[in-house]
Amino acid sequence: MSAMALLHKPLNGNAIAPLNLGLALVAVVASARPIWTLLYGYAEKLCLTTVYISSEDTLYDDVLLWMNHHVFQHQNFRSVIAATSNQAESITNPSTAASSNSNLKLSGTQFVDPSQSIQLKPFQGSRLFVYNRKWINFTHSAPRTGRTPHTMPDDDPLPLKLQCFSLSLSTLHAFLSEATLYSRKVSLSNVTVYRALANSRDLVRWTRVTSRPRRNLATVILDEHKKQTILGDIREYLHPRMKQWYSNHGIPYRRGYLFSGPPGTGKTSLASAIAGAFGLDIYVLSLGDSTMTESQFLRLFAEVPSQCVVLLEDIDVAGVTVARTHLPVGTSQPATGTSGPPSAGSSVISLSVLLNAIDGVSSHEGRILIMTTNAPHVLDRALVRPGRVDLHIQFELPSREELHGLFLSMFSDMIGEKMDASDEKGDPVALEDLAAQFAAKFPERRLSLAEAQGFLLKYKKQPAEACAEVSGWIIKMTQEEDERTVL
Ligand SMILES: Nc1ncnc2c1ncn2[C@@H]1O[C@H](COP(=O)(O)OP(=O)(O)OP(=O)(O)O)[C@@H](O)[C@H]1O
């Protein structure tokens, strides 16, 4: 029988019954949807409390972290979001992070294990869970950057929604407090680094770029006296009674440090280790960033929390030319005398704006300001006067003794392993011996620790080879440097 014939064949009673049943089911399901939506809407209004969270608020990361460690941890999702670790570290399990770190960290350098650099974020959707004997519905949708808490939730949903079957917000409030506390506890073992980045709407905001395990201060190679001086100074400054002392004496409660020295000598490393030692986050602003306007700079500076390290990099590029020094606040173009966009490596931040940010009304009490420069001699005296710079730490190119220390710390985890083909035991004495030979081949204070570390990284498990090859590398590096100087 043809299909046309089938279509025209009248249906008998037996065929019509299931068809009617199917149609009835479809009708029930179709009408149930709006009924459910209606009922849920009523329930939402009558007995649910709701909290929306913007992806730009720190609570967003805090809640995701809490959910990941308490609700999603043991669930095997078939639908997840994969993200590289610098975007997703905030939801990394601290225990996993700690164990991976023990294998990968060497002299403060983070070696990335590819399996650890990819994180799986929780699925997008809803999940009911119990908190303090109350049901909470967690809904996570794709975050859209640029949303603010003032956006109307119905028109333009914020990515995180928490709903509780309760007439008061107290449960959700308690939950958010716990998520924040939990996140702080996790971050105590990490240093979180924030940088000023533009979002999809070109709005420059502080963005959490990474959260890495604290760097041990012992891994920063620096004259012990200088190290202890700055540590003692910060310890005293952060003492709980100090704030009152500053207030009693009418002195603004803030402290500034200048780290100067050639590139790759450990200025940033020390700032990071200090943040870790005192359990603070780091907010990094580079004055070499020629895309940042003065108003953005002032706003970002005003937005840093009171207890943190603010790292101002490359301050020698700030307003060192006379024309830039006199730019009106809030503009990024020179007033007179100069024109056009700033050249690469120069800053649009004038000295007056920088000084304003450091000690103006917007400055925050309790913060530690660390400024770094490769050229301390070009700095305006106003910038480095006491009150803005309370301690100046000079970093130098390393001595042989410091290179010796670098070699030991790079290979210290090899004690007990074979160090070359002829070495049977891999004992500490052999490593000491190699370190002494390695350091003796360097000219005093000529190449930076960053350069020496870069060389050693090519020989991670081969200290003897590193020692044998270093002479040729030193000749090449110093020749290149001489050529650059002549040019
Ligand atoms: N004094 C040091 N102790 C330990 N590691 C160092 C030291 N100096 C440099 N390094 C290593 O070299 C790399 C670069 O160091 P770092 O960024 O701290 O240098 P820097 O002085 O801030 O350089 P720049 O002036 O170019 O910003 C890092 O990986 C760091 O581990």
Q: Strands of the largest sheet, in order across it? A: 10-9-12-13-14-11-15
Low confidence ranges: 1-8, 86-116, 145-156, 320-345
Shape: globular
As for the number of domains, it is: 3
Number of helices: 17
The second-level CATH architecture of the largest domain is 3-Layer(aba) Sandwich
User: For the terminal residues, how far apart are their CA atoms?
Assistant: 93 Å
What are the distinct ligands in this entry? adenosine-5'-triphosphate
* Highest-level CATH class of the largest domain: Alpha Beta
Q: Decide which structural class fits the backbone.
A: alpha/beta
Relative helix content: 40-55%
**CATH fold-level topology of the largest domain:** Rossmann fold
The description of the largest β-sheet is:
7 strands, mixed
Number of strands: 15
User: What do we call the CATH homologous superfamily of the largest domain?
Assistant: P-loop containing nucleotide triphosphate hydrolases
Compute the average pLDDT: 76
| Cα-based radius of gyration, to the nearest Å | 30 Å
Strand content: 15-25%
